[in-house]
Amino acid sequence: SLPPPPTMVAVVYWFRKALRLHDNPALIAAAEGASSLYPVYCLDPKTCSRARGAWTNPNRMRFLLESLADLDASLRKLNSRLIVLHGDPVEALPAACKEWSASRLAYELDYEQYSLRRDKAVRSQAEQAGLEVVTCVGHTLVDPEALLLLSRGAPVTSYDKFRGLLAQELKARPVTTLPPPASLPDGGDASPPPPPVSLSPPPPAALPDGGDEGGAAALVLALSSMSPYQFRKLKTTASASCNIESPTGACWEDSEQYFWADMVGALEKMATRGVAGRTFFASAAGSSDYAVGLANLAAFLAQTMQETIQYDACDENNWSEQSALDMVSAKGGSPGEIYPASAACGQLGQSYQSYSCPAGGVLDPETGETVPPEEVQCAVDPEMVVVAQTSAQWYGAPPPLFCAPRTAVPEAPRWDVSGWCPTQGTSWNQAEEWAAPFGSMARGSIHFGPAASTASVPAEVLASTPDYPSYVVGSVDQGTGDACLLDGTCCLDKDNQRAGSWRSCAGGCENSALPELNVGSEARTDVEGCCWWGRGAIQTTGVCNFGKLNYFAGKKAAQRGKDALFPDVDFCANPGAICQPEYPELRWFSGLFYWLNDVQPYDVRGERYLDVLRAWVDNGMDPSDHSLVDFASGVVNRGCHDAPFEGIGGADPCGNGEIHAWEERRMNFKHIWGVLSPLLPTRRRSLLLQ
Q: What b-and-e string marks burial along 229-255, b requiring 16 or more CB atoms within 10 Å of the CB?
């Protein structure tokens, strides 16, 4: 060990590979003569970052964090503690020394190539800052430099030569095992000054929450090997009492938007690669038992089946019906009109473009750094024109949401569900009005969309209304029927439109307004910049969420040099990409992205989603045990794990209201678990049968 220094000083000791107190000569040397000792570990993005390719197995990261926790526990027994810094050690360590008024930095020697380059830079920065740097051999049995001296600088080219030199060195300087120190100098105050913000530790357990990659691969393989499950949507004739257990003939038909293969493809990306260091939780650390992954997936699908799949909705529907307006009125807001086009700006009193990122910034789970909100969120472009891909299909249902500048749509109309639109056969003079092939097409097959497509619109109509927004303006107050259809001013809003038309309001038709909401605003009578409605299996809404998709997984991620899952998709320039048929996995991906960022890390008042998930599996995976699905339903539907059930009432700890359709979500979970449970590993399946 080093001789005691002449004066007592504050020392920062940098733990690296020897994450232990016993047999640690560098730690013993650092403690000698120290008035205070700050033990630190630095999470270096170059070695603890998935994006840089520095680690590919979550087991490695979990083992590291468990080792750090064990080291911290050992230090606390000596009235000390481990401080975890996050960032480049070249910058983080001198900054920490300055923050704590330490004059010495100590660490054990490391001879790997990256470590040598890093340590050279650390020493240079530390010495420029006036710090004394002391090092000690600890990771290797002897100092490799000593062997080079014994060989007079000549490379050792045989094992016999190496063994002889090693014997010489060990004879001259015998190696002994050191016991752990009996005590350590404290770190000054009981709570040492925290490092600067840039040195803050990463969110706890964010990286290892994906479990084991072996489990993820096994989960995906199992899902891929089964007969594809057919997701189902409600028939347009289905009664309000229909649920997942109802007879198929009366209630259900095959979904046209959601498919098993697309779901598995998106899940594979999220379970094995993930986004920004977070992955779909598929198995326990060090295990290929993916039972917990199946349960996690069942909880996810139970929510998507309620939120979107049963309606075959990828884009948000215009659901501003009278009951929704009444809810706004009950809260003291302005209800607005029924089914206004301005619902694209926000429904139930919300303003989707006001869903901006927090002023304090967005946490990057991969680096632990806070990114300024303007770097992440999408900018609202008043000139953007977007038409939704999907919409409700019941008789007279409102057409797709859309956004357009005021110059194109000065005043938002409202949708009137009444009237009649011809869908079968042709009009007597249709061939005279429209050129082939439209002159002989069934009238229900002539329409705008899906999305911005005009492929099913006659050229004669496009001559005066070249896109959907201009058609909407021209169709206001034109009613329904055969004559206005042939004029191109009604009944062309969507495929097989059977009823409904646009009506005007003086000054434009208002959406609901509830300004006191965090995401509320004054009523809108236009659709300018209103392109941020919900999309996906669990709907992604607002400029911040679309910005996160772009920043962490889309075009901006690729521009930042990250391994982007969708490098060619600009979610800010084209938020509708989530529902476009060119990207069939995106509707699932956006829902899983929400799951990874809002559900899996959920930890409120000591209740953690992952704890409930593991407990449900460990307690027998009984679908009549509603603990898992109820927890997930509360988080997804109300942002609160213990929100009261709709129709039952009770305490509302979060103040977010009651869980809608909680019984249906339970039935969805039981149903989909019945589909997934045969895929359980053999041991788990045997336990389930027992």
A: eebbbbbeebeeebbbeeeeeebbbeb
Contacts of residue 489, defined as CB under 8 A and 6 or more positions apart, other chains included, come to 471, 474, 475, 478
As a whole number of angstroms, the distance between CA 565 and CA 548 comes to: 13
For β-strands 132-136 and 104-108, DSSP reports them as parallel
Query: Do 405 and 399 meet the contact criterion of CB atoms below 8 Å apart?
Result: no
Q: What is the DSSP letter of 596?
A: I
pLDDT digits (tens, 9 = 90+) for 255-298: 999 999 999 999 999 998 888 888 999 987 666 689 999 999 99
Using CB atoms within 10 A of its CB, is residue 433 exposed (0-12), middle (13-18) or buried (19+)?
Answer: middle
User: How far from chain centre, in Å, is Cα 183?
Assistant: 44
Residue 133: what are its φ and ψ, rounded to 5°?
A: -110, 120
Q: How far apart are CA 444 and CA 424, in angstroms?
A: 6
**Helix (H/G/I), strand (E/B), else coil: 282:** coil
* Closest listed residue to residue 310, CA positions, set 385, 209, 231: 231
Q: Is the dihedral of CA 234, 239, 240, 246 positive or negative?
A: negative
- The whole-angstrom separation of Cα 216 and Cα 200 is 30
Asked whether the beta carbons of 90 and 125 are under 8 A apart, the reply is: yes
Distance CA 328, CA 349 (A): 6
Which DSSP category does 597 fall into?
A: I
Burial of 510 (0-12, 13-18, 19+ CB in 10 A): buried
- Say if CB 524 and CB 546 are below 8 A apart: no
Nearest Cα to Cα of residue 106 among 91, 126, 85, 125: 126
Distance between CA atoms of residues 547 and 575, nearest Å: 9
Query: Please, what is the Cα angle at 541 between 575 and 471, to 5 degrees?
Result: 55
Whether the upstream peptide bond of residue 469 has omega within 30° of 0, thus cis, is no
Would you state the structure tokens that stand for residue 638, as one six-digit string? 């109300």
Token readout for 568 is 């060619």
Is the pTM above the cut of 0.70?
no
Q: Which amino acid is at 337?
A: E
Cα distance between residue 498 and residue 91, in whole Å: 66
Contacts (Cβ under 8 Å, ≥6 apart) of 13: 26, 27, 30, 31, 37, 38, 39, 40, 106, 107
Residues 471-521 pLDDT 10s: 999 999 999 999 999 999 999 999 999 999 999 999 999 999 988 776 777
User: What is the rounded distance in angstroms from the CA atom of residue 74 to the CA atom of residue 61?
Assistant: 20
CA 586/CA 581 separation, integer angstroms: 9
